[in-house]
Amino acid sequence: MHLLCFGQICIGKPFTFIRFSFAFLFQNQRKMRTITSSGGKVETVTVRRTESSDAHAINSLISPATVAVFGRVNVIHLLEKANLAVTLSNAKNEVLAHAAFSDHPIGDIVDQACWEPFLHDNYSAEKYTPLNTLFLHLFVAQPIFSIGSAKEIVRTVFNAITELQYICLVTPTSRCLERALEKIFEPMKSLKDPGPQCSAFVCHRHSYCPRLHVRRARVEDHDDLTHIFAEQTKALTGSYGTYFLAELIEAQDDENHAAVCENEGTAVGFISVSGDINLKLLNECFELGPFNGLYKPSPEDLTETAPEPEGEGTPGDTNTISPQGSTGEVSSQDVDQTKDFDQGGITEIPSEVSEPGDSQACAAKPQGSELTLKPRVSVTPNAFCIQLFVIYKNFEMRSVDFLPNIFKLFPDRDFCIISVPKLAPEFPLLQSFLRVVPHHTSSLPQELYIFHRSGLLKTFVVSLAVSADRPAVCDMVKRLSLHESLLEDLDMFYQAHRDKDGTPLQAFVAQVQNQLVGIVIIRNEEDIDYIRANYNIENFIYFSHHRYEEHGQLCHFALNPIFQHYAKHFLKEVLRLAHKSCLYYPIYPSYHNQKNSCAHYLTSVLNCMVPVRPRRQIVYPLEELGINAPSKQITKDQVSYALNHINRKLTMEPKVTINARIVVVGASDTGLAFLEVLAFCPHLRFNNMTLISTHGFPGYYTNEKMRFLSMSHSSSDRDHAQMSLRSWINVVTGKMVGIDRAAKHVLVSGGRKVPYDHLILCTGQQYQVSCPTGVDGSHLPPKSQLPAQPRRRYTGPVPSNLFTLNDHHDCVTAYQWLLNNFVELKGNAIVYGNTIDVYTCVETLLCLDVQGYRIHLVHLPTTEGSSCSPRSCFSNPTVEKAMKKALEKSGVHVHHNCLLAQMNDGQNPEPITSLSFTSDSQPLRLECSVFMNLSSKGVDYDAFKTINDACLVYDGRLVIDTTFHTNDSTIRAAGPLTKFARRYLADQWSHSSFNSREVGQELAAALLPFFDPTLEPAVNSPADLDRLIPIYTQAKIQGGRLPGGYSYLHATKPEQRPSAVHPVEGREILTGRIETGNYFHLHLNQYGMVETITCLSLKPFPVSNYLCLYGKHELLLNRLCSRYDEGLVHDLYSYFREKWCLAIYHDRFADFEQEMHQIMESTKVQDHNDVSISELVQRMVDEKLDIIEEPNVFLKKVFETSGGLASLKTSTLNYLRYNRYHLTMYAQPGLL
């Protein structure tokens, strides 16, 4: 059951308790039910969405009687095109029955866009509309369970889809239906004789899932209602007394009402509503301007915001009315038995542009002066609230039956509001409500949802736009920032039905009561091959079952917010009327000059769509491939964009809404990887994800000469553009300076407070401003005589020519300063540090045409075990030797074992003109015009102070356990900021040893079970298991441009400590020399797996390709070792450009490898008691199997005779054929 209570923002006496379950389609029906066979057998069953893996079982249930009614059916194709497919399975997950439903009749009886007039003209079906009707396209069942299965499926579908009233079956045959269908369908009454050449049947909602009867609550209902509150009685009575329910019912007056809903005379739900609302607090916390602050409008507002209508809602009236516009009585049979409720005006509210916080596409902000309607004189409330709501779980999908009744209780108010705790899962009633965006200053731990009485109207009609609609469209979208672009495309549709490029355009409008409330403009998707190749669209569709012309691109979408709950239906109708099966919406990065790059008003439709992950692309050697290269449509270089998608299946697949406030501090690789996982969960919608970052979201480099720092190759500018994380998260620019664990908020520099429910700390480590030792430069003793200097923090003012580089913002700032103040002038640049970043920084200075003699590279002293040793940034001595030669050749001065002593000889450091260092020989004093500080990394002082003041355990770094928890259960942390607790006895390991992106993904995986109903929450693991720290497997990567013009890449397995030499185990594969600029080194472990990759080249090389080599066996690399030993491999760069290896670079090769392993595991050896190949190998290792032949020869022979080899070959050919558009260089069977 569901129980809902509200806080003090709504009523005087606060309620604070809430309990809900997830609102997921069929989530509430997935509990076990029973059906009875014709022979009396009882079976426990579950109703669920059909999966593609069910196709084989469904095919086996198709009988001649099925074909007679539904025709010949391609099940996979039907599952792709059906709006809803339902399967009934038993406890063993065996398919007992299946039904598929679509929004149009079967086959070619009538065009899918024209079925409505067809039914209205030929049958008594005047009430049937696309909103309340679905058509059965297939029903199959095991014969003994067919009747029970059909009834259970129909009951479940009606219960899951609140608007559905009729399920129709229109079949070209005149034969009688099979018995199961006869039990649930009845013939439609024909209006013509003879009628059309088909038979039509209908199943009514009221026969299986009738609407609930709603009436005023009475004191006599108390006893009937107490059992509904049973689970929450203790909590409620503890706060409000034993008789809180009776008191609530008795207290009814003009401002407070209570109602119950009944099923067969039994109360199954209760609702309490009140007109006493704290509107002042609501307006302080939420963006209620577009709704006039939930106040009645003053006459001045009405005069200024809406033209005076010419008539009383005449069909020809195209004027839109403000949200507070004139009201009138309506009488509609489409509203649930409601004859007298206030229409409240079909409003013109630009919801999409008034909801910047809901979906931050391109971080675009609307102009408030154009969009916000402020209350003037009126202080009359125009809203009432639901203060207590409870309903049995079996009836929760019928919660909307309460709405017409409660609006009758407040005939003079237009809005119903609900506030719910942010941690409460969304329940079905809220799916009809519009979420109101909170102010960024709001710390209220509740979400506000709003519903306008006009949303009760069911006359939501979608049709092709006509020229007479233009004035209404213009009036509706005039406040949108990109309305000119929309109207331009609409005019092109009217004139030629094509855009400027000749691509077909289609425009559709939505109307309610003959008033225009929405518009959609789409075009044919002409770039579908590029989309398929560059995005994982096949995670959502079987591409081969969709014709090219069935793919469309969403150009414009605008919908009145009071009908936002019809958004998916709007898109479903567009797909039907346009004869499309898929729609795509690209989001271009903000720096790209595209007319829809920052389309605010489209952000709301993103909630109906799913984000599509980009695919890693093979970098092809196009010249070598010649005519065997993939199509130019696939390999062409074009502006990157993020892709969103919806198809027919998804139009009836709701998302689970997560309102929990998830705050990530730090735009590090770890933090961004965490946010990416959450944002790309297709069935989840996170409304409150926030990133706090010192310089905001990472920027992009407009010039490669800005890259002063090395790269982790975690994500590129292209990756950021293709993911568009800013569409899903709020970004707060500032530094974390405090954590209030009691109030659960983060204090950001500037005074802003960011509340959280889950706080994720991923600040990492940064280069710190180096603090001089302060030793007098004129009396510097030898370094060996200096006392040990404790590490100190620099607290003085930072000189204007001192740059400590940590991120994109710092690099761009330094780049601009250098161009303006250094490059064309005289003076020295001092680069101070030991990491790889000092070398990439020197190379960037050289690329800026700074002469080498003006650059001084100063290395810190080498200390035992120091992470900033000069040697530690290059684990390969050859690379280190190459750098030494390159620096000498460029004329760069290199100084070793130097420690910063003074700036400007201890005087005012603004600006720095000289630097003094201690060294192991003579003191060093250098003239300085710019100081590039890359000396040592550590936890930022403000982050440390914040963590320490918050009483989080800090032991050199923030202490976490194996599940990322700090000592506060609501605060997690990951990345180089952290260390494992000492109880694990693993001080040699930390997150800094691993790939940061992988750590972020694992952090998200640890948090997702708290939100995702499809994942099982983690059970309590054995106590001993928590003593083991997780070991991650992906490569630790670094690379960049090094002095001498070298491109550098180093990928190696995670290690406890950086090692100067490779492990003894395994072998080396080495080609090229540093002198020729083609050095390529591989280290293979004792098992022949690639463990380290080092590339140093004067030419650019495909980094993403080479990273795919990590972890691969040398046999997979075309028997690399044997070829190398035979002298056949002279250059690894050329070797890995050959055609044979391109399949290994494919993004789906890992899936192919997994399939290979499954074949190996499942192959049974008949001559050895049907054991698997892996078990056979284990017997050989354990010496439990006597063989005469060589083990390899024996295993090969056994594998061939067992049929495993044939399966491997088939799977390999399928892999190449399915990915043919990428792997055109491989021959296919039948080619010759």
TrEMBL record:
Transmembrane segments: none
Superkingdom of origin organism: Eukaryota
Record-annotated CFAP61 dimerisation domain positions: 1030-1144
Compositional bias per record (Acidic residues), positions renumbered to this chain: 301-311
InterPro entries associated with the record: CFAP61, CFAP61_dimer, CFAP61_N, FAD/NAD-bd_sf
Polar residues: bias regions: 317-335
Pfam family for this entry, one: CFAP61_dimer
SUPFAM superfamilies with a match to the protein in the record: FAD/NAD(P)-binding domain
Residue ranges of domain Cilia- and flagella-associated protein 61 N-terminal in the record: 46-297, 382-540
Residue ranges the record marks as coiled coil: none
Region ranges (Disordered): 296-363
PANTHER family the record matches: CILIA- AND FLAGELLA-ASSOCIATED PROTEIN 61
Name of this protein: Cilia and flagella associated protein 61
Gene that produces this protein: CFAP61
